[in-house]
Predict the structure.
Amino acid sequence: MIVIAIGIVVVTFMWLFTHFNRTGLALRGMAQDEHAAMMLGIDSDRMAVIAMAMGSILAGLSAIALLPLGNIVVEAGYNVLILSIAVCIVGGLGSWVGAILAAFIIGFLQIIAAYIQSHFQMVVALLAIIVTLILRPSGLFGKQKELEERV
């Protein structure tokens, strides 16, 4: 429950930071169009350092939150990488709501698969990627496909 509460607080803080803070808006601007942001006077090197620092802080916070749940090993990073890619693909690139919904869906499917056999947990994430790419390549809430069709 504490990990879920920390996750909700971090997501809320990041949303507020990127929507109402000048630095957060500059980071969003750099992510959308670097050249246009630089023409508006945003320093790209400074934003890169801030983005790297924020990513490092979030990684450290997640390690602190997950350490009481068990051991942290280097090889566990591959599972997290596969799961994060699955969440991004299933939720749709560029959609926060899709990413959160996909994380819940994949998490619940993994819990159900653990009752069958624990080896099927990673298979669920890979099957979610395959099914999403076959049925809806843009993801649940992805907008990339619609943009391509309009152009």
